[in-house]
Amino acid sequence: MRPSPSRTFAEIATAERPTDTTVVMRRAVVLGGSIAGLMAARVLSDHAEEVLIVERDPSDAEHGPRPGVPQGSQVHALLPSGQLQLERWFPGIAEEALALGAPLPPSAGTTAKTFVNGVLGVPPPPAATGPMLITTRPFLEALVRRHTLAVKNVRMVYGRADGLVYADRRVTGARYVPQGGAEAVVEPADLVVDAMGRSSRLSDWLAGDGWPRPPMQRMPIKLNYATALFKRDEKISDTWVVVYQTMAGKGRTARIGGINSVEDDRWMMLVAGYDHDRPSRDVADFTERCRKHYPEMFGDIAEHGEMLGEVITYHQADSRRRDFHKLDRMPAGLVAVGDAVASFNPVYGQGMTSAMLHASCLSAYLRSGPKPHEEPARAYFDQVRVIVDAAWQISTSADIELPHVDGPYPRGYKLTKWFGNLVFRASQIDPVLSSRLSRVTTMLDHPATLSRPGTLLRALRIGLLRGRPQRAA
User: What's the predicted TM-score (pTM) here?
Assistant: First the structure.
């Protein structure tokens, strides 16, 4: 009998480092050298004699956002689950990040302040994941790249991925055009990994080569970001991390905001809207939004802080997922990771963490005794589906409530919505439910864990007590 999604999720998200790694292939080629590709390469280094990463962007990840990562200037978060996986594959990397300037919380008990519809929520107990790692995307990516390329059997070349090579219904290599070159080079491989992100061309390649496209689901979120960096100043605010969300409702416009303390003693502050609510690059507009629509610390920092650089905007039209597990035919020797499989509303911080978990799916698959160059990697995509389903359920259950979003509605939507609202309201006043909900939203646990009888009964009891009229003293 197939294990439940929550059990599969727990097995994938474990912090235990694998000890049963064996080499099962001669060569693996990873198309894409961002976080997802780097993590896949690290896992593959345990199972392949050689790992080659093909990255289109030759710019140094240490010197700011790269052109190949259009959202690289925006707020990124490595959720607790992602940090566990990062430390699993690179032991000691969190401490190194702190030594290099990643901010350490000012006290052991400090957690992010979370506001929902203007109300400060009950903070859950801190997750047992070690120091919370908060950095800019370029800082973290550069650190992961250095560690990945330090592995002796991993190397990187620069060029544009150009297609796949086949023989006997299996992928036997990948083509790429080297940086500055004119003709494609074929790199033989026992396994090719698509880590080309949201704009991956793998579906087109498969269709052009006579294979079916993986079905794609989209949710039109129409998200609009504006982000600015400020010099941290305790005289202005003692803010460390703030997460703000206004849900669409009577008299409310859906908005997202966030403040992160990042390396080099800076704040990274974000304001976001949906559909026609579009923050601009104008500093005055950014400042007015911070003061008018967000908690006091946003306005204080925007008005009195020293802005470093310009306001940077970003737009994401949709959340999307490619359901490889639904394919009735697929070639052997091929997998996909990260945003090439699914990308979500970035305000929930699931992107990099999902990439870490996909790498752990790849590890579990390669430790199961597969023949990746002979058989389609269905077992891998079945595990990835569990991760994608979890993140998709968390993000889309909120996004589907946006006025401009009209689906797709999941099966059992009304019941799921009722139950989700019940748990959410109860979690605002109950630390136990707050902790359980937090473990799901930070991808430490599968959403199915919230449907356990004990959680449901606790939420119902709190809901009934909350609605009971109070006696006069």
Answer: 0.92
